[in-house]
């Protein structure tokens, strides 16, 4: 199958559409939480940001979908917009049910080129998902919250995995359509977009730290899963989870590979013990081993 071909488009769109799961967030098996679990859930400082991100995702994807001429691609992107809006609905339900304090803000939509906005959003999702895979695994294994709640979040993470596989293929397909499909050119474009995504993520973390000043989450609630936490351990979990989750997809389709390769390089460097000093200053207990 040639990347960028009509067959490629059919395959990545059909895979995405047929793997869509119908469910109503209100109908999920929401568990009753005891006092400790409620306290932990409420102490997580980023629910407001996550809700905002999902609402913004839904708005960007829906706005871009409305501009697509190709009916199959439009159907797939519209479906993604629906799933993003459902993520926001799921979070809203969780916030209400468990009394989490999170203020809802209307999303600001990027002006200008919607293809670029969708691409920026897509690479941001690839980065968030890669990190989220590892953090989710570590948190779930630690039993920080009841497993029934992780099972609900699993629904959301699985959909994000489908989104990033769809996105990477969409990106390659539309680059090929514009005569920019050479692998080196796609790689160079990805580096640019990932750099911007990392910049946005760092800005969000910085804003979050300032907003949560005085609420020392990491020193109290998160000590449950930060015990024994190392930067290397986190990267290893992200890498392993990424590989495990990608196994369920059509192997002929493209998969995000920039971050896994970057992780491999970082891990190789850490194993050679050439970079312990560079990891100093990373949030959490970083030992650089
Ligand atoms: Fe989402
Ligand atoms: Fe998504």
Written account of the structure:
- The longest helix is centred in the middle third of the chain and has 31 residues, at 147-177.
- This protein is globular.
- The protein is built from 10 helices and no strands.
- Helix content is 66%, strand content 0%.
- With 289 residues, the protein is an all-alpha fold.
- The structure holds fe (ii) ion (2 copies).
- One fe (ii) ion (FE2) binds next to α6.
TL;DR of this structure?
With 289 residues, this protein is mainly alpha-helical.
Structural category: mainly alpha
Overall 3D shape: globular
What's the rounded overall pLDDT mean?
Answer: 88
Ligands present: fe (ii) ion
Give the distance, in angstroms, between the N- and C-terminal Cα atoms: 42 Å
Q: Biggest β-sheet: count, sense, barrel?
A: none
Helical percent range? Answer: 55-70%
> How many alpha or pi helices?
10
Number of strands: 0
Q: What percent of residues are in strands?
A: under 5%
Radius of gyration over C-alpha positions, nearest whole angstrom: 19 Å
Instruction: Output the helix-strand order.
Output: HHHHHHHHHH
Instruction: Point out poorly predicted stretches.
Output: 281-289
């Amino acid at each position: 199958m040639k990347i960028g071909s009509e067959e490629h488009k059919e395959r990545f769109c059909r895979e995405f559409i047929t793997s869509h799961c119908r469910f109503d967030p209100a109908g999920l098996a929401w568990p009753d939480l005891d006092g400790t679990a409620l306290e932990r859930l409420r102490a997580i400082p980023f629910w407001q940001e996550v809700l905002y991100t999902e609402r913004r995702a839904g708005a960007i994807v829906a706005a871009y979908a409305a501009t697509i001429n190709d009916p199959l691609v439009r159907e797939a992107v519209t479906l993604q917009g629906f799933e993003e809006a459902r993520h926001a609905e799921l979070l809203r339900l969780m916030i209400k049910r468990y009394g989490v304090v999170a203020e809802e803000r209307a999303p600001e939509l990027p002006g200008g080129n919607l293809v670029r906005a969708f691409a920026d959003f897509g690479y941001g999702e690839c980065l968030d998902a890669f990190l989220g895979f590892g953090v989710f695994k570590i948190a779930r294994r630690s039993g920080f919250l009841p497993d029934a709640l992780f099972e609900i979040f699993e629904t959301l993470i699985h959909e994000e995995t489908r989104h990033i596989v769809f996105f990477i293929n969409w990106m390659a397909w539309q680059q090929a359509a514009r005569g920019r499909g050479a692998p080196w050119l796609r790689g160079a474009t990805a580096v640019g977009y990932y750099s911007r995504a990392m910049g946005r993520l760092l800005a969000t973390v910085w804003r979050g730290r300032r907003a949560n000043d005085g609420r020392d989450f990491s020193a109290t609630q998160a000590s449950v899963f930060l015990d024994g936490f190392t930067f290397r351990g986190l990267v290893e979990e992200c890498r392993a989870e990424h590989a495990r989750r990608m196994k369920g997809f059509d192997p002929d389709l493209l998969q995000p590979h920039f971050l896994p390769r970057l992780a491999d390089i970082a891990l190789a460097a850490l194993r050679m013990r050439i970079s312990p000093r560079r990891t100093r200053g990373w949030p959490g207990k970083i030992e650089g081993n």
